[in-house]
Design a protein that fits this description.
about 120 residues, alpha+beta, HIT family, subunit A, 5-stranded antiparallel β-sheet, 5 strands, globular
């Protein structure tokens, strides 16, 4: 990852949350990632899982991030099972056209209602 990518992601709202500058109720927190409820939910359950490593998006991830990416998905799965026993969806938007609004990799865990396909 380039230094520019690290600086970009650390200056986002998620970088500020990770540093504790913006308080959130953490529903998961470990050395690799943290999770909390989205402030603008699009489903009854809408959680965000964010890595503590600075990566701009899934499209910017490299082989150096494979372990972290696997960890994010495992945590998203655990939270999905816990909060959405009827089923859940995990989404990673990458880039403006996909709807990414914060330049820091994050997973959305969505559930609590029937999800149609295809999305959007």
């Amino acid at each position: 990852m380039s230094q520019d990518n690290a600086n970009t992601t650390q200056d986002t709202i998620f970088g500020r949350i990770i540093r504790g500058e913006i308080p959130v109720e953490r529903i998961h927190d470990d050395d690799v990632c943290m999770a909390f409820r989205d402030i603008a939910p699009v489903a009854p359950v809408h959680l965000l899982v964010i890595p503590k490593t600075a990566v701009q998006s899934l499209g910017h991830a490299s082989t150096a991030h494979e372990v972290m990416l696997g960890h994010l998905l495992r945590v998203a799965g655990e939270l999905g099972r816990q909060y959405c026993p009827g089923g859940f969806r995990v989404v990673a938007n990458s880039g403006v056209d996909a709807g990414q609004s914060v330049d820091h990799l994050h997973l959305h865990v969505l559930g609590g209602r029937h999800m149609s396909w295809p999305p959007g």
